[in-house]
Amino acid sequence: MRDLDQILDLVESCDDPERLRSWIKNAQDKGEPLVADAAFRRLVSVLPKEKPGSMEHDFWQTIHAFESLLSEERGKTTRLARTRQKVARVGEARTLQDWAVSAKSTNGFTMLLERKMPELTGEAIILRHAHQFDVEVVEAARRRLEDAGVDLAVLPGAMPAE
After folding, report:
1. Can you give the pTM of this predicted structure?
2. Contact 154, 102 (CB under 8 A)
3. Is 52 helix (H, G, I), strand (E, B) or coil?
4. Of these four, 32, 87, 129, 151, which has the most CB atoms within 10 Å of its CB?
5. Number of helices and strands in the chain (H, E)
6. Cα separation of 129 and 134, whole Å?
7. Gap between the Cα atoms of 61 and 3, Å rounded
8. CA nearest to 17, candidates 40, 51, 50
9. What are 106-136's pLDDT values in tens digits?
10. Which of 70, 65, 69, 132 is nearest to 95 (CA)?
């Protein structure tokens, strides 16, 4: 157990994407899901160039996570070209807003929930940065997460319901 704690501490302090990718692969090969998960989460947290803690940083964490999951699933590098184009046109906040108010959830939302990563969904980002969105958008995000069975109390940084 002590070795696992040391490895997790190393992962948490690592800022090198290639080293983190290596730890993910090695952990998966050795059947160490805790290390693989920790290294994956750390990887997507260090890839964005935006200021950590910002809505933009959180958004790009989600994009990197979803692209990584799709790449792994498909066995080839996959980029969200249309999403990236939309962000270039309207920005991260508008993209998140459109996801939340859409009648149907995104494929990324479903895939992240299936992998027990609700905090990386666009809807969770909206709740963390609720002050940047209209009340209707925040409520739509909250509703989608609740309808999917996500316990909002365990989402990091989510604004409580009023």
Report:
1. 0.91
2. no
3. coil
4. 129
5. 9, 0
6. 11
7. 28
8. 40
9. 999 999 999 999 999 999 999 999 999 999 9
10. 132
